Amino acid sequence: MPNLTRNHYFFLGMLILLVGLQFRFVQTYKLKQPVAKYIAKKIHKTAPGEEPTPEAAYVQSGGDIPDNKRSVQPPKYLNLSCISIGAVLILHGVAMRPN
Q1: How would you class 59 by CB atoms within 10 Å of its CB: exposed for 0-12, middle for 13-18, buried for 19 or more?
Q2: Do 34 and 66 belong together in one domain?
Q3: Measured between alpha carbons, how far is 6 from 77 in angstroms, rounded to an integer?
Q4: Number of folded domains that form the chain
Q5: Whether residues 34 and 68 fall in one domain
Q6: Among residues 37, 20, 22, which one has the least CA distance to residue 88?
Q7: By the 8 A CB rule, do 35 and 71 touch?
Q8: Do the beta carbons of residue 19 and residue 89 sit within 8 Å?
Q9: Both 65 and 34 in a single domain?
Q10: Residues 34 and 64 in one domain
Q11: Can you give the residue range of the structural domain that contains 91?
């Protein structure tokens, strides 16, 4: 693993902090149809010999995803944890000695 300099820590901290702020200000993310269909196929996989649920069979046959199932709501704790981890990384980058 390469040595991380203070600039790396600072940049990584800023990136994680901004992602946390994005999660804080946006409540729900709407997925487009191809992405929603891909995720639905991955989630609704059935084991061989197992009877698929009606929703899984509908999705696997190429049916459209209903509109109410095309949104993602990140958990509430995710924004504050990203903001705090980003702040710690920024402070660590500032506190390091320049090389």
Answers
A1: buried
A2: yes
A3: 28
A4: 2
A5: yes
A6: 20
A7: no
A8: no
A9: yes
A10: yes
A11: 1-27+73-99
